[in-house]
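Example record for the data management plan.
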Amino acid sequence: MAGHSKWSKIKRKKAGNDAARSKVFSRILREITIASRLGGGDPSGNPRLSLAIDNAKSNNLPKDNIERAIKKGTGELGAGESIEEVVYEGYGPGGVAYIVEATTDNAKRTVGEVRHAFTRFGGNLGTSGSVSYLFEQKGIVSIPAAGIDKEELMLQAIDAGAEDINDDDPDQLEVTTRREDLFTVHKHLEELGYAITGAELEWVPATDVKLEDSSALTNFKLMSYLEDIDDVGNVFNNMKMDEETMAVAEQL
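Corresponding structural encoding:
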């Protein structure tokens, strides 16, 4: 399972259910608003919005909230706040590369909060392109593993254009796609009857950085701090997330 996914799983276990759900809801609703603003409010003609709505439904977001987010994006509720997508790059302790995705109505505020987080834990915020070359953006389709024939899923996913399947997590399978194939693969597997629990773009590192326990723990604290910033939606890095490192995360 991808490092980002492993960390997210631990975070969900440690966070209070209400707080964790609220964070997920906020992130998905912002994505729906942005997708609607950029590509219109009709999901049949807007793949990004379609994926966002599917993710909202899989997380049991109320229908009224979804519709309100769409109208907010299309301007049906008035001009409202101007929300933009921003991506920050930087380095954490031990030379771990970070990509931080955020949506904000005040870029100056958000960059200040992100820079403070890096500085607080001994890292530094970099410039655009300073670490992104170490990653590749991939589509990740998540499917509960229970009752799934992995070989059959692999064949069907590859036939739809997927690249690989990760089965490190006994509870969840992750189908990896090229960035541009996420929507097609997701829809194909959904039509075949698979219960999709998530379909999103993630920054996957080309190489991992293995750290000593103390540096790994500081990076986990930085990741947690960044994710607690209201405007931040996702945090990705290239710290090696093996069993030994993940055991360190349990110390938080």
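Summary line stored alongside the record: The radius of gyration is 18 Å.
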